[in-house]
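WARN retry 2 of 3 for item q-0093 after timeout on previous attempt; input resubmitted unchanged.
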Amino acid sequence: MPFDADVYLKALDHRGPAAPTLDTLRALHHRHLITFPYDSALNAGRGTALWAGVDIDRDAAFDEIVVGGRGGNCYELNGLFRILLAELGFDVGIFSAGIRQMDGSFGPDLEHLFNHARVDGGLYLVDVGFVGPSYLEPLRVSGEVQSQHGSRFRVVPADGYHVVERSGRSGVWQAVYRFRDRPRDLAEWQVPSAELEAFARTLAGAGILVRGRSFATGQRVLIGKRLLTVDDGHETVRVLTDPAEHERVVAEILRTRAEDAR
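OK item q-0093 returned
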């Protein structure tokens, strides 16, 4: 089915105004994270060509994700959302980020593709393609602390970057990812990059699938068999050792039947 903004809004169960305001952006952003899951299984087998499809076919992606109900990766989910926002009249563009790794370092600058929007004189980060835990609503690029559903966020400068930091109920601040305040062009991902290829080989070698989807007050992130739940700022981690439970959780996140999620 070709891209259709009205069908998109219906899929998001958005019943309010669609004017390009901050309230609309907040509502759509949260609903998108609740409705469409992130699924890294879609990258399996792509090897070092993880970003080859970054310039999405809008109609094909719309038909498969919005109409068909499958999950998506960062550039698919954020790409579709960027098209929707542009059609609604928002001033939107592309940013890229390096995500904080387990050892505290950051991935390559082009590792993650997300969006930004300028609304009412403010610059907001718009990201519906990051598995989390992260912001559920647009985040203003500002050092001020911004509270969302029990978690706090801020955007702080560091070494020429802006770093998105998050704090849950524990009060400990931790980086989510870093980005440069410079609009990106999709063509940048098409230029051969030894850094990106090496990073892609690392991801492929790990072989760990990551799935995630949000709910009204938080997020569920399944990394392999490790389930992280953030609810109203409270974090819990559980390892799913029972294969049947693992299948059930995958199915719940991806909104599929358990047998389809294997």
